[in-house]
From TrEMBL:
One Gene Ontology term, aspect cellular component: extracellular region
Organism (species): Denitromonas iodatirespirans
Lineage of source species: Bacteria, Pseudomonadati, Pseudomonadota, Betaproteobacteria, Rhodocyclales
Active site location: H118 (proton donor/acceptor), C134 (nucleophile)
Domain L,D-TPase catalytic: 1-158
Pathway connected to this protein: Cell wall biogenesis; peptidoglycan biosynthesis
Record protein name field: L,D-transpeptidase
Protein family (similarity comment): Belongs to the YkuD family.
SUPFAM superfamilies: L,D-transpeptidase catalytic domain-like (SSF141523)
Amino acid sequence: MKLLIDLATQEMRLMDADGTVLRRYRVSTATNGPGECRDSGCTPRGRHRIRARIGGGQPIRAVFVGRRPTGEVWSEALGAAHPSRDWILSRILWLSGLEPGRNRLGKVDSMQRYIYIHGTPDTEPMGVPRSHGCVRMANRDVVELFELVDTDTEVEIR
């Protein structure tokens, strides 16, 4: 399996080893566009792998802070009560760069930047760059994807 994330179209494709597209998802990447530097708020490009899968067994829309479930489940009322939170919901696929100097090590390390594929509030649009660097997905989509991929699945962001 391999994931290909296209920044221009805001689309993710899940492909098998032969390149056959198995699933397509609308995503939302960084408002600040592509970029690899720490604290840039940009989505890093290049080859990555899924370093960790976090949140299996949690309810859909479960809230995570610091990669730990808080016990909360996102709702519009919870969102309204905390309007400035950058919500990480449902599941987390934590990415690690594979290209030293581009997205691995030093100031460009995707893992140290905490770059994830994760769920976002249902009120957030997909297909529009709105994240702080991560790749956001609809909650049902990220739960489905989580069950289809393993750690070490390659992820290419271009």
